[in-house]
Amino acid sequence: MIFELEKVRDRIWFLRIYVLLKEFLVLQSSQRSLELQLENQPDRRLDGVAELQFGDQSSVRHQSVISPSSVRHPVIQQRSRGMRIEFAPLHVPLRRRLQTAAVLQWIFSFLALAQCCMAAFILLLVSDWWTVSLLYAGWLWLDWDTPSSGGRRSQLVRSWTVWEHFRDYFPLKLIKTVDLDPTKNYIFGFHPHGVLVAGGFGNFCTEATGFSRLFPGLRPHLLMLPFWFRVPFFRDYIMCGGLVSSSKASLSHLISQPEGGNVAVIAVGGASEALDARPGSLTLQVRSRKGFIKLALKHGAQLVPVFSFGENELFDQMENPAGSSLRRLQNRLQSIMGVAVPLFHARGVFQYSFGLIPYRRPIHTVVGKPIPVVQNPSPSSEDINGLHQVYLENLTELFEHHKLTFGLDEDQHLTFT
To answer: Which residues are 371's β-sheet partners?
Structure first.
């Protein structure tokens, strides 16, 4: 009798497995059919975000598109809600796979490439190839000041095809509002910082969004913490994109060149603003950031406010309100290491519920009009505060003028802290 009951129970389990497999195959079949239909419709995206036209700077249209992941069998949907894991469909177009791979390597370069480069240097040093590390150490000593002297950009690296896939993942777009004189030097104040400054990297460290075409004669340099330029091999890679040290000497070198044409891009909010980067946030830490204003006055560089709509929508963060234990720990780590440690998450490679891959959200980076600056080698506090107030007013005007175009509400405004 017991044996017969066990046989019946086994058959029930096999039946359950069969039903689940059948439901799964039905789901995949419906998703594949939808993908084939959408593939035959030009200029339509599969994940329901705003459509982007890269050729026309004045044309930004938004279309609502059905997502393949939204077509779900009711039983599978109920079980997924219980597990809270939404897996990616098996049949995904190759271009989307390439886009995800491009973003994955970018995430890796930000979070782990420096550590891998340091480990490679040490391993070479203790191996039979120790002469390679020794020779590189000599090169590092000779080249130590390059990150503070304009860097060493490579147009070849900036034009890699991988950056086009990176651009299309979000998608990412650079929008020019006025022409800029290539005989002058500029400081671009980039807002908001976001978690990983994706818009700053994609627009100013690559040619994927056409910076050189939009602003001929200008050379963008995104400023990065000096610490990263001390890491062997890694420093050479990031300099290829136009990244330079964020030290005072580095910024002064860029904006003091008499021939002009240099653009220093500064994420004004810095590492501390990254701790508040989450969807819907419009708080900018800028009221006490006046160092770049002082240097602009000393060297006569024009100030240009830049706002990147969608920058804060890419990642979620653990709740860390001011005064909480987590926020105190993050502030402590930042004071020790000089870099912020935001506990962020978004989606994964094969599922949409958790991971370190950013969400597919459109990023529109708008470059405002320049603020004329009269050179003053010894600016007073009144001069600095006055120009800083003008900068905040221009930044606010830029945001208010474009916010409705990019999906924000009329009652949403910037908050300066």
So the answer is: 303
Q: Are residues 242 and 268 in the same domain?
A: yes
pTM for this predicted structure = 0.80
Classify 53 as helix, strand or coil: coil
Number of domains in the chain: 2
Residue 290 backbone phi and psi in degrees, to 5: -125, 0
Torsion 162-167-173-174 (CA) sign: negative
Residues in the chain: 417
On whether both 171 and 315 belong to a single domain, the answer is yes
pLDDT at residue 42, as a whole number: 42
Amino acid 376 reads: N
Do the Cβ atoms of 264 and 148 come closer than 8 Å? no
**Is the Cβ–Cβ distance between 205 and 222 less than 8 Å?**
yes
pLDDT band at 310 (very low <50, low <70, confident <90, very high): very high
Q: What is the pLDDT of residues 241-258, one digit of tens each?
A: 999 999 999 999 999 999
Do the strands 186-191 and 244-245 form a parallel or antiparallel pair, or are they unpaired? unpaired
> 110 and 13 in one domain?
no
Both 154 and 236 in a single domain? Answer: yes
In a domain, 91, yes or no: no
Handedness of CA 114, 205, 107, 312 (dihedral sign): positive
Q: pLDDT band at 86, cuts 50/70/90? A: confident
Domain of residue 205: give its range: 96-416
The two tokens of residue 2 are: 């017991």
Q: Report yes or no on 121 lying in a domain.
A: yes
Structure tokens of 234?
Answer: 């890694």
Q: Where is the domain boundary, 84, 115, 141?
A: 84
Domain boundary among 84, 105, 120: 84
- For residue 89, being part of any structural domain is answered with no
The angle subtended at Cα 258 by Cα 252 and Cα 261, nearest 5°, is 80
Tell me the two tokens of residue 140: 């590092």
